[in-house]
Specification:
mainly beta, 0% helix
Length: 122
C-alpha cells in the first residue's frame, strides 16, 4: 500500500492549460492499459486545451466550481461531487468555472492527445 497526501505540484504542464494551474501527478501508469492519476487545481477560470484520450478519462470534481465542454454538448458548469466519464476518443476540455477555482482528480487511460487550441472564450 502507498498513501500519498500530496505530490510535487507543477505550475505548468507543457503549455496545455490556459491560466494558472497546479498539477500533481499522483501515480503514473505502471504499464500499458493502466491509468495515470492526477490532482489538478485550476485557478480563476483556467481550463485545459482541447484534448482526447484513447482509453477515455474519468474526472471527479472534489472542490470548487468546474466546467467541462465537448463538441456535442457545449460547455456545462458542474458543482463539487460531479463525476464525468469522457468516453474513448471524445474531444473535450475541463477546468474551473469563469472567475472561480476548481480541483479535479483525473484518471486518464492512454497517452493524452493534446490540441494547440484553447476553448473559445476561455
Amino acid at each position: 500500500m502507498r498513501i500519498q497526501s500530496e505530490a510535487a505540484a507543477s505550475g505548468t504542464y507543457g503549455g496545455r492549460f490556459t491560466g494558472a494551474v497546479e498539477f500533481e501527478m499522483l501515480q503514473e501508469a505502471e504499464a500499458d492499459g493502466r491509468p495515470d492519476v492526477a490532482r489538478v487545481r485550476f485557478i480563476d477560470g483556467a481550463v485545459t486545451n482541447w484534448h482526447r484520450h484513447p482509453g477515455g478519462q474519468h474526472l471527479l470534481l472534489v472542490e470548487g466550481h468546474g466546467r467541462i465542454g465537448t463538441d456535442a454538448d457545449g460547455e456545462v458548469e458542474v458543482a463539487p461531487g460531479a463525476f464525468v466519464a469522457a468516453p474513448a476518443g471524445e474531444r473535450h476540455y475541463h477546468g474551473a468555472a469563469r472567475g472561480r477555482s476548481a480541483t479535479w482528480v483525473s484518471i486518464t487511460f492512454g497517452t493524452t492527445r493534446w490540441e494547440d487550441v484553447a476553448p473559445g472564450g476561455a
